Amino acid sequence: MGFDLALRITGGVVGFAFLLQSLEYLYSQRRYRVVFAVRAMLSLLLLIGIGAEWALILLWLMGVFQLHRFQGPYNGGSDRMGMLVLSMLVLCRWLPEPRWQEIAFGYLGLQLILSYFISGWVKVVNPEWRSGQALRNVFEFSAYPVSETLRGWATRPVLLFVMSWAVILFELIFPLTVFNFYSLAIGLGLAATFHFANACLFGLNRFFWVWLSAYPALLWLQGRILGGLGQ
Predict the structure, then answer these.
(1) Distances in Å between the alpha carbon of 32 and those of 46, 61, 223?
(2) Given a cut of 70, is residue 147 above it in pLDDT?
(3) 162: domain range?
């Protein structure tokens, strides 16, 4: 995937993600409706690629405002990833040297790899994740599951054990997928399916589009890595 195409796709997807978030804020944060209405319009401009350079700068400033207003990421990991994607896009659009633009975009791809690997490492050193107890707690006590049927999974320890280790192993070996085009395509497909399942089962819908927006950076970075290896 070429640099310009990957950059446009990343901007379009993260613009769509921010647009959805802004519409949600318009409903839940009535005190700041004007702010989030402006954010929604800027996100739409980024999505369709009109004035993207200035939309990125203004969205970044509004992201800093949100961090200050809510004393940190309002929605945890998805907001942190969204701010990372936005920051790297700003650098890619405004740094004067193409080489530094590519370094910024490559850094986004690297952070995507680390986001999965570190998540897997945190889980594998946690005995509750290794035993399946962590998932049992999610289904039994958490406010995330949206139906009583899902809560019933807490009574199936074997299933939860297998699910726990499937997630752990996938996240730990994800960095290895970058060395082959087909393995990365499969890896990203499984990762997207994982985020989609979390959105459907637990309502963690913000993670889906924000994480997908970083996928083009990794696809582009893989091309550079394989090109450097002569493959």
Answers:
(1) 21, 15, 42
(2) no
(3) 3-228
Residue-wise DSSP of 196-212: HHHHHHH--HHHHHHHH
**Spatial distance between the Cα atoms of 109 and 52, rounded to a whole number of angstroms:** 21
- Kindly report, residue by residue over 194-217, the tens digit of the pLDDT: 999 888 877 777 889 999 999 999
Helix (H, G, I), strand (E, B) or coil at 143: coil
Domain count, the chain: 1
pLDDT for residue 98 is more than 60: yes
Place of tokens 């809510």: 70
Q: Report the interhelical angle of 215-228 vs 98-124 (nearest 10°).
A: 110
pLDDT range class, residue 76, cuts 50, 70, 90: low
pTM: 0.88
Residue of 73, 69, 108, 72 lying closest to 92 (CA atoms): 108
pLDDT at 3 over 80: yes
Pairwise CA distance, residues 8 & 75, whole Å? 25
Residue 2: pLDDT band (50, 70, 90) is confident
Q: Which of 126, 59, 57 is nearest to 95 (CA)?
A: 57
Provide the 10 A C-beta neighbour count for residue 168: 19
Rounded-to-integer distance, Cα 224 and Cα 220, Å:
7
How far apart are alpha carbons 161 and 227 in whole angstroms?
A: 40
